[in-house]
Write a structure and sequence with these properties.
Elements: H1 2-11, H2 19-36, H3 42-61, H4 66-78, H5 82-95, H6 100-113, H7 117-129, H8 134-152, H9 154-165, H10 169-172, H11 175-187, H12 191-202, H13 204-209
Helix pairs in contact: 1-2, 2-3, 4-5, 5-6, 6-7, 7-8, 8-9, 9-11, 11-12
Length: about 210
């Protein structure tokens, strides 16, 4: 309570040089207090709801350091604020390219935990597009497509997969990718589209023996 009282004059003046520092300190005080409450109590639920609203405000203001965004992301996970955690992780990726891959994986995991596997899958497809290593492109693509299919169905996965592969010719003809796309086409009632994918795979041995 004493710390909160000391912070109030600063939090009431956004022009104060230590205003942002006070905001961050207020977050930690409130978060620590909420986590000290009994997990299943109504008081804990109310405190966490208030924390989520406050975190939304902090993230909307922006301008935090990568370290601060990382702390927000981890704290958010522990109070079930998965969307806010994902948003904070994406901010970490923008702020610190050295940990961008880890941060984007963490964002995808947060969305998946919140039942938003389509958003998580789309992020992984974007990672595939911006990666210059074929094995990683393939891994991101397959995992992303699996998440999209699980959350949005085969039709959406097929559409997103074809759209992404049009920009990834290096992996578009790999056997595993071809078979995945053919299965998606079949499951959406598009046998002709499936045949086009399988035709490319079946023609490979013939082409390989041509001079």
């Amino acid at each position: 309570m004493a710390a909160r009282k000391q912070l109030q004059p600063i939090l009431g003046n956004p022009q104060d040089p230590v205003y942002r520092q006070a905001q961050h300190m207020q977050w930690k005080i409130d978060w620590t207090h909420a986590m000290a409450l009994p997990p299943a109590s109504l008081a804990r639920k109310r405190a966490q709801a208030a924390l989520i609203l406050y975190l939304e405000q902090l993230l909307k203001e922006g301008g935090w350091s990568a370290k601060e965004y990382t702390q927000f992301a981890n704290d958010a996970l522990r109070i079930g604020a998965y969307d806010q955690s994902a948003e904070a992780w994406l901010a970490v990726a923008r702020k610190n390219p050295a940990v961008a891959v880890h941060a984007m994986h963490a964002a995808a995991a947060a969305w998946t935990a919140n039942g938003k596997s389509v958003k998580a899958g789309q992020l992984l497809l974007q990672m595939a597009l911006h990666c210059d290593q074929a094995p990683l492109q393939k891994d991101y693509f397959i995992r992303g497509l699996t998440l999209i299919q699980g959350g949005g169905g085969a039709k959406l996965a097929l559409f997103q997969g074809e759209k992404t592969l049009s920009r990834l010719p290096g992996i578009a003809k790999e056997r595993e990718i071809v078979l995945i796309m053919a299965r998606l086409a079949i499951s959406t009632g598009q046998p002709k589209q499936a045949a086009r994918w399988l035709k490319a795979e079946l023609e490979k041995p013939v082409q390989a023996h041509q001079p």
